[in-house]
Specification:
8 strands; 97 residues; single chain; 4% helix; mainly beta
């Protein structure tokens, strides 16, 4: 089943991968920082960042923990490596919320 990442209420807390439809808070903007590196910003302007092995949309400014390596898998898909050299993965983000 295909699921979408969600920043509940547009951001401010943990990121979830539990939505089967794309609504407003499933929209994110990728901002290139340098070649193959980007930040990911939630609809409310907060940046995704890695804290204690979890991903949150709660940072008003991009920090070193907000920069992701962007790895092209195909014309329609990318993988993202975090600042602690781990990958964003759906199993680690899925929760029952």
């Amino acid at each position: 089943m295909k699921v979408y990442l969600s920043a509940l209420n547009g951001g401010g807390e943990k990121i979830y991968a539990n939505k089967i439809y794309c609504n407003g808070w499933e929209l994110f903007e990728l901002k290139d920082v340098e070649e193959n590196k980007c930040t990911i910003q939630a609809i409310n302007g907060l940046f995704l960042s890695v804290k204690d092995e979890e991903v949150y949309a709660d940072s008003k400014v991009a920090t070193e923990y907000s920069i992701f390596e962007k790895i092209k898998i195909s014309d329609e898909a990318y993988a993202f490596s975090t600042s602690n050299n781990k990958f964003l993965s759906i199993p680690s983000l899925i929760t029952k919320r």
